[in-house]
Amino acid sequence: MGGDNPHIEAQHLLQALLQQEDGSTASLLARAGVNLVPLRAALQQAIARLPKVEGNAGEVSISRDLNNLLNVTDKAAQKQGDAFIASEMFLLRWPRTRAKPVAC
Predict the structure, then answer these.
(1) pTM
(2) How far apart (Å, rounded) are the C-alpha atoms in residues 82 and 30?
């Protein structure tokens, strides 16, 4: 993270998924017609606007919104018989939760 944010948010997770060299998220979004350059810029801006703390001694926790998003995504994955959460499931479930989207 490196941004002194007190919580890991959905935006952090999406940014990490897009940065994976062998991940499928960037190619999946590109095939869906998403322009990745403005998306990455919007992610950086959204993360820069998140609250920051000083002196938290490296203690970072997952946010309530991201926790809810991951729970919803995990339930959907289990319903389909998947043993793990695929990035596609995360992307599909995000708009259905209270986690803040990224505006491009």
Answers:
(1) 0.85
(2) 24
Helix (H, G, I), strand (E, B) or coil at 62: strand
The domain defined by 7-96 folds into Double Clp-N motif (1.10.1780)
Other Cβ atoms within 10 Å of 70 Cβ, number: 19
Amino acid letter at 74? D
Token look-up 């729970």 returns: 71
Per the structure block, which two tokens stand in for 44?
């950086």
pLDDT tens digits, residue range 56-102? 666 789 999 999 999 999 999 999 999 999 999 989 888 877 766 66
Domain ranges of the chain: 7-96
- Letter for the amino acid at 24? S
